[in-house]
Design goal:
Blueprint lengths: L1 H29 L28 H4 L5 H9 L18 H16 L2
Helix pairs in contact: 1-4, 3-4
The structure holds heme C.
The site of heme C has 25 residues, from helix 2, helix 3 and helix 4.
Length: 112
């Protein structure tokens, strides 16, 4: 029985990671992030240009005193600057989607 429970919980874990990845990928595509950014952890590798790979966050995000989520949300709304510069593109979607996107990028950054 224990083994069955283990296999089941593992399968559930995998399927939820997949659902999150699919949702995050859709948000990144719908909002055109992947035109500039690679996200190699999600297999988005076509972007040209100098934007960083969003598979990992920089210290600007993770070292922010209010935490990476607040940083990402503020950065994408062009309320927070980085070295005196604003993000290349202003967020046009909903606040709820921006929250989901920020959570997804933080989760991705936490993976090895
Ligand atoms: C027009 C090109 C362009 C588009 C479109 C774009 N970005 Fe960026 N983004 C950049 C560039 C360039 C940087 C690097 C800025 C810097 O480091 O000064 C950046 C930086 C970032 C960072 C900071 C990364 C870090 O770890 O410091 C995040 C997060 C980010 N972008 C998310 C997004 C998301 C989410 C979208 C889609 C809603 C998006 N970007 C769309 C060009 C773009």
């Amino acid at each position: 029985m224990k083994i069955i429970a283990f296999v089941l919980s593992f399968a559930l874990m995998l399927s939820s990671a997949f659902a999150d990845d699919a949702a995050l990928t859709k948000l990144l595509k719908d909002n055109k992030c992947e035109k500039c950014h690679k996200v190699t952890a999600l297999g988005l590798a076509d972007a040209k240009g100098k934007a960083p790979d969003l598979s990992h966050l920089s210290k600007d995000a993770t070292g922010y005193e209010k935490g990476a989520k607040a940083w990402i949300q503020g950065w994408l709304k062009k309320e927070i600057t980085k070295g005196g510069k604003k993000h290349a593109m202003a967020w046009k979607g909903s606040d709820a989607d921006l929250g989901t996107l920020a959570d997804g990028l933080i989760e991705l950054d936490g993976r090895k």
